[in-house]
Amino acid sequence: MLDRPTTKDQWIARARATTPDGRAFINGAYVNAKSGKTFDKISSADGSVAGQVADCDAADIDLAVSAAKTAFEDGRWRDKPATEKKRVLLRFAELIKQHTDEIAIRETLDVGKVISNSISIDVPYCYVCLQYYAELADKMYDEIAPMSPNDLVQIRKEPLGVIGAIVPWNYPLIISAWKLGPALLAGNSVVLKPAEQSPFASLYLGGLAREAGIPDGVLNIVPGFGEKTGKPLALHMDVDMVTFTGSTEVGKLMMRYAADSNIKRVALELGGKSAQIVMPDADLDAAAEAIAWSIYYNQGQTCHAGSRVLAHRSIRKQLIEKIIKVTAAQIPQGHSFDPAAQMGAMVEQKHMERVLEYIAVGQKEGASLALGGKQIMQNTGGFYVEPTIFDEVKPDMRIAQEEIFGPVLAVIPFDTEEEAVRIANGTVFGLGGSVWTSDMNVAHRVSGAIRAGTVWVNCYDKSSPVTPFGGFKQSGFGRDRSPHAVDKYMDYKTIWTVYK
């Protein structure tokens, strides 16, 4: 293993010396798209071409699904003893850990997140999640129903078959692990479709899975664009379930594709517009720090980013001043391969332009720009937007209702607890939220009233594989993480035997 770089220039040199394999991983081998077509993957950090990616389509999906179905039906993975699944998955996790730097470089090339976060958060969370599910393998039991002595009624959990897993570009490693861990633990075969913006880190996992001992055909990874690759996967008649993380708009398409094909299972983790309610008795220093990190970490490209702050009118100005100070002191923005930076580039030019359009919309709607609002570091060739805060935001403004998916914070004043809850619940989303208060009666009331899959009290974005993650309303249904995630990749079978 090469020594880890310590400076920006060393990391850039290491990245430029890296040649990511952009071919599909099907039936245990890296292969070109059947059409032979490729597309350029552009580095978010500097706008350069990071590598070539197989431009896969329905023909490649057919190959991958066929390989997955064959592997499932002959039981090469499904029928392995639980202890063997555990051993292989633990080996897979260990190999990811051993190749942290190689994977982290690909993650930063893919997404533009700073290299320090790819190394310390994204790659470790990927292998820790897989370790967690590996350890569950020999700790799961079927059930016996309470019947008469002459009736033996077994309730068994059985894998569904072929899982189509479609993951987004903002956390390709982490969210891939959320899907692969429970799906493989359950005994399924998987066709993983990474976003076209972020293929390299996910594709690297294929070779490590093969080295770990996951049989050919059990894990297949097919890159490509949504319309050409994701749609045929979701429509495929031999895919038994699609698990999708991404936008609400595309999530609705997944449900249509399921209905138009074989009524396959669907699990959706979709958009968010999470509200952080800050009461007048809150610890404002702690709230400001958590709020700043919740919106500027990963450049705000997080589904549950705390993008709305509902601040009591009496402390709103003071809170905004503290958020600005935390941002300046703790979240320096810089080149994605600068280890000193804590905020890097947006994923691509198109998305950067979308975020800048929302900033223009906020100004046009009459919100007050309290911080940022511009593209910066144009000389790098990358796609950088500075931390942005809007004050005096009204609940019905587009910047308060729509998912911007960038480093843009909307601050909305309120006067009463009831008003705060009403505003918090006043969007189509329900992924996350928080309440900041020193009064635990208020904390319990408000956290119970917020309609969201996760509500934090006096903290934000605490996360663990042992807790379920997902949303209410148009933020989707089904849960990633925790033992509860395994259930959606399995079905119940009742076997009723009568003894005479």
Descriptive overview:
The protein has 500 residues and is an alpha/beta fold. It folds into two domains: 8-270 and 476-493, Aldehyde Dehydrogenase, Chain A, domain 1; 275-465, Aldehyde Dehydrogenase, Chain A, domain 2 (3-Layer(aba) Sandwich), CATH 3.40.309. It is 40% helix and 20% strand. The chain has helices at residues 8-16, 58-74, 82-98, 100-111, 115-136, 172-185, 200-212, 226-235, 248-260, 284-296, 316-330, 349-365, 398-401, 417-424, 440-449, 484-487, and strands at residues 24-26, 29-31, 38-42, 49-54, 143-144, 151-159, 162-166, 189-193, 219-221, 241-245, 265-269, 275-278, 308-312, 368-371, 375-376, 384-385, 388-391, 408-414, 432-436, 454-457, 476-477, 490-498. Strands 14-17-18-13-12-19-20 form a seven-stranded mixed sheet, sandwiched between helices. It has a six-stranded mixed sheet with strand order 9-8-7-10-11-21, sandwiched between helices. Strands 5-6-22 form a three-stranded antiparallel sheet, with no helix packed on it. Strand 19 (432-436), helix 15 (440-449) and strand 20 (454-457) form a beta-alpha-beta unit. Helix 3 runs antiparallel to helix 5 (115-136), helix 3 (82-98) packs across helix 7 (200-212) and helix 4 packs across helix 5 (115-136). It is globular, with a radius of gyration of 23 Å. The termini are far apart. The relative contact order is 0.14.
